[in-house]
Structures are given as structure tokens and as C-alpha cells.
């Protein structure tokens, strides 16, 4: 796995994005923490300064400046590193005592007030102080003799607050590194799993349709996906096998009549013939093409029903009306053979579907029934509404289909031995099956003892009947 | 009839021009969609035959342009696309009839005849008559030479259709489409049986038959065969 590819993966990109969000949030939390803690420290300092100043002021009032100077010096020697600054100046501003070198001129600080943050020039701060000028909290008191005392506190640089900040920054840094490492590990795992799927896809594209994605025993979402994809591949392979069979069948079934047609035309051309002979040959040729076209159209109808995605012409179909119209069309043909065509319908069995395809399917069944029922037999077309389904059944008094053959006759171009001498292309029931599947209907072949009973069991639309009369809008 | 044929298959077009010409029609042929549209918009045709798949411009787009131009010349759409939906799209685009390849030439001819006759208004009639055969559309009754003929409702519709297209050849598919509203290809001779039953009723006792079989094509209701 190359590194650039790793960084272009979704996992790493997401990890980067989340790390960034995480950093911003941490920054905000840290800022808020520092701000509130700083506030608390400031408040404590202020009280300290105020308290000390008032104590020193009391000392000055009781014992005078000499004593005050003494106390300041003692404090400075006791805690030289405390960061506390003292400055006592006389009325004229000259320095009397303290560790500040001069009165901060920039500071606009009024005696007797509260603690204020003021600018202190670097030059008046003793020792080797970090940085330059400083912004320090300070407080001033003026005594009766006109002398003034200033107290200020240097903020320690490496105080407890800074230590907390440092720890926090270290944690954030560790989190960022950990996040990145995790995301790289994660995306490597994902990439490895994806690569197996991708490689299988590549194999299949080169033509080996039998390849399947290996499934691990982890039973995770990748295995679930691989399982689904494998099922899809099974289905595709099945469909392709079906298409191959159809192509073979077409080749087989169209080849013979095409050969006949061609030979006929060739033989006719061999010698000079009289016009009547030519006419006969041509008429025969046209009849031959007609049967070819018929087979062809039947195959197209099956393909159309099986593809199932052309549903513009779908609508509600009243099965009783349809059965009625079809019986109307075929009754004469049945009666020609001395057969009785009986129609039994309910009034309102409605389904959603394609009227043309349904008509063709039921028409095929009727044609079969008429063809295979002996003269004088009877055929019954029935629409039987059930609770959740509606059946169209067609029963006849013919020879029926032996149970072992029933599944077989639904395949394309299959014709039973007993039907060899009747006209037909063996596509009729295949179309019925395709139309049934398209309409989510079951096609059942049974025994009507004697004879065949074919049932098309449709899911009933009846639940929606009320909606037709309901007001709209 | 003056016919415009828009078809890019040169051989097919040649046969059609020849066949239609021998049938006494004048045919202009356009091999591309743009030529076809130009001719259709400028010429004065009785009927237009338009193939759907054409170089440059699709057949249906020609129909749409014509209809947008308020041109009501009947159009028969030819197509190699066979799905039911394609037929519906074709008719929605403004086509008047739709024929799927491969088709029989006689079927094309019969449909062209039906299209050009249909443009004449005839809905207001209450009676149709061919020779001594009369049907009353309001009372749904038929009589031959003054003798009432008993017909089943569907037989009456079949007869009405044949009479509306008197002296024209109607094919079996046209009958199936217009009388039963079915668009499929029966594998048996259902229509022939229906016609022979109707013939039994209207021609049986008459000295001159009116319902003729046109070999290889269909049927014709006419005084002369």
C-alpha cells in the first residue's frame, strides 16, 4: 500500500477532519479554563495587596515613616523572590525606600483607590526581570505627610497555571498523534478488505463470472456486504445463463424455418417457371416469414414481460371484464371444435398490471385449452376472488400434463411429445410464466381429473377499493 | 394518395416506394430526419410514414414539430422498438398509428388507408349502409335487405368497424385492436373464426356476398370484391 493512496482514503480524511474539530474544541475548553482560573488568581492577589497596604498604612500612621521603611526592608530581605514591589516616595516624588527604582510615570493611579493594572517601565523594575515593560496589578496609598506608598505584584511566569497549560498541550498533542495513528491503522484495515472485493470485481470483469468474494469468519459489515454482492453475482450468473439458453433456442428454432425459406427461394430460381409457380413459391415464402415473425414476437413479449421495467402502460385491470372480453374472442373458436367455453366471474376483481400482457397470457392459456381439449370437451374460465388474492383458473377436459412434466413445460420452446403434430412454437406457457412473475402472480398447474387446470393467483388490489370513491384534495 | 416516407434504410425505402407506387400512390422519400421535417412542413401530404430511428433527428421529434406547427397530417410511426411503452410514447407524441418492424406490407397499406379515411368526420352518422346492409348505431340493430339480423354485442361492433371502413382492407390485427382493444398476436385463427361467423349471419341468405377475404391481408366489406 502506497502512502499517497493511504492519505487519499476516506478513513484518513475523516480522521483529519475529526482531529481538527477535536483540537478546536480542546482549544476553546483550555481558553475558558485559563480565563476563569486567571480571574480567580487576580482576585486573590487584589485582596492580598489591599490587605498589606492597609496594614502598612496603619503602621505608618502609628509609628511614622522610619518604622515603615524598616518593615519594607525586612520584608524584602525575608522574601527576595516573592515578586512583590514596594516603593515609598516623599511628597516631592523622591524615592525613600522599596525595591522599585522610580515612580512609574506612565501609571495613572490614584491613592486610596482599588487595585488597578498599570504599566511599569522596564527601567524602574529591579533585577533581571523577564521581558520588557510589565503590566502589573498595583495599589497606592497617600499618607498625611504627603508621602506615598505603592505596592505591586509581579505575575510569576512559571506559576501553577502555566504548568497546567503545559500538561494540557501535551495531552492535546498526544491525542492528535494517537488519532492519526488510529486512522491510518483503520484505513489500512478497510483498504485491505476493500481490495479483496475490488480484486474479485476485476476478475469478474475479465470474464470469469464464477468468481466470488471471499467471506471471512468475522461476520462483520464487510462480510455482510460481500454476502450481498455474492448473491447478486449468483443472480446475474443465473440470468446470463438464461439469456444464453434463449439465444441458443432462438438460433435453433429460427434456423430451421430460415433454412427452409432460403432453400425454397433458391430452388424456385433454379429453372424458368410459369408465373403461377412463382406466385405459389412467394406465397409460401411469406407464410414462412409470418411464422418466423410470430415466434420472434412471442420471444419479444417474453423478454418485455421479464425485463419488467416498462410500466408506463400499467393501470388497474378489471379481471372480470378482461375474462369476459377474452371469452368473447375465443368462444367462437371453441365452438368450432364443438367445445363449450364457460365463463364464471365475480363482479369486481381488480389488479394493477398491463392489460395487453395479461390478455396475451390468458389468451395463450385459452388457445392451449382449445387446442388440446378433444372435440366436444368443455373449457371453463373462472375468476375467483379470495381474501387476499384473486385466481384466474382455466380448466379443460383434455389429457392434462403429467405431473413430472409440469415444471418442464414452462421453459422456452418446450413441447411435449403429444403436441408434436399441432402447430405452435413452445413459447406460450413461457410467456404466461413471465407475465405471472411480472405481476407477482403464481402460476399453478394442476389436475382437474381428467384434464388440466391452470391457475394464475394474483395479489388482490381490493384493499384500496375505498380510495376510488374517497374525495381527493 | 400523396405520401411522405421518412426512412433511412435505403433498401426498405426502395421497396416501399415501389410497392406504394404500384398501389397508385405518389411517394416522396426523405432519408434523414431533417429532410423529412423540411418536406413535411413545406409539402402537402395525405399521410406521413416516419421511422423512429433516423440519423440527425428522431422520428417522434418530427411528429412533435409538426403538431406544434398545427399540422394535422396523419402520421404512421414505424419502429423497430417493440415494447408496448414505445407504442404509447409514439401515440403520445402525436402519431396516429404505430407499426412495429417487421411488418407485412399489406398491413402497412391497410393502415395507411384507414388513417386517410379517418380524417373525414363520420361520428355524427346514426346509420351506416353498404349495399342493402344497414346498421342503426343508436338502436344497435342490423338488417340485410330489410331482414333483421340478430347479432351479439361484439359482433355488432365488429360489423360497425367493417362498415366504417367499407371498401378498405382491414387486417386481423386492426380488427383485434379496434374491436377487442387487444394488442397482441394470437397464435391461432381467432379473428378468422369470428369473421366466418359474422359472414354466416350477413351473407348466408344473400345472393351477393359483401364480406370478402383479401388473401394474405385481411378482410373487406364491400359491394364489389
Describe the structure in brief.
Chain A has helices spanning 3-7, 10-63, 65-78, 160-205, 221-270, 275-307, 319-336, 355-372, 428-438, 465-469, and strands spanning 84-89, 95-98, 116-120, 134-142, 148-153, 315-318, 340-344, 350-353, 378-385, 389-396, 442-447, 452-459. Chain A has 473 residues and is of the alpha+beta class. The chains are: A alpha+beta (473), B alpha/beta (225).
What does this structure look like?
The complex is a heterodimer of chains A (473) and B (225). With 473 residues, chain A is α+β, with helices and mostly antiparallel strands. Among the domains of chain A are: 9-160, Beta-Lactamase, CATH 3.30.450; 310-471, Histidine kinase-like ATPase, C-terminal domain (Heat Shock Protein 90, 2-Layer Sandwich). Chain A is built from ten helices and twelve strands. In chain A, strand 9 and strand 10 (389-396) form a beta hairpin. The mean pLDDT of chain B is 89. The radius of gyration of chain B is 19 Å and the shape is elongated. Chain B has 225 residues and is α/β, with parallel strands linked by helices. Chain B has eight helices and twelve strands. The longest helix of chain B has 14 residues, at 105-118.
Point out poorly predicted stretches of chain B: none
Strand content of chain B: 15-25%
**What's the rounded overall pLDDT mean of chain B?**
89
Give the H and E element order of chain B: EHEHEHEHEHEEEEHEHHEE
Strand arrangement, major sheet of chain A: 2-1-5-4-3
Structural class of chain A: alpha+beta
Oligomer state of the chains in this structure: heterodimer
Structural class of chain B: alpha/beta
Radius of gyration of chain B: 19 Å
- Report the sheet with the most strands of chain B, covering strand number, pairing sense and barrel closure: 5 strands, parallel
Indicate the CATH topology of the domain at 310-471 in chain A. Answer: Heat Shock Protein 90
**Regions with little confidence, pLDDT below 50 for 5+ residues of chain A:** 463-473
Question: Please, what is the average pLDDT of chain A?
Answer: 82
CATH architecture of the domain at 310-471 in chain A: 2-Layer Sandwich
Which range does the strand content of chain A fall in? 15-25%
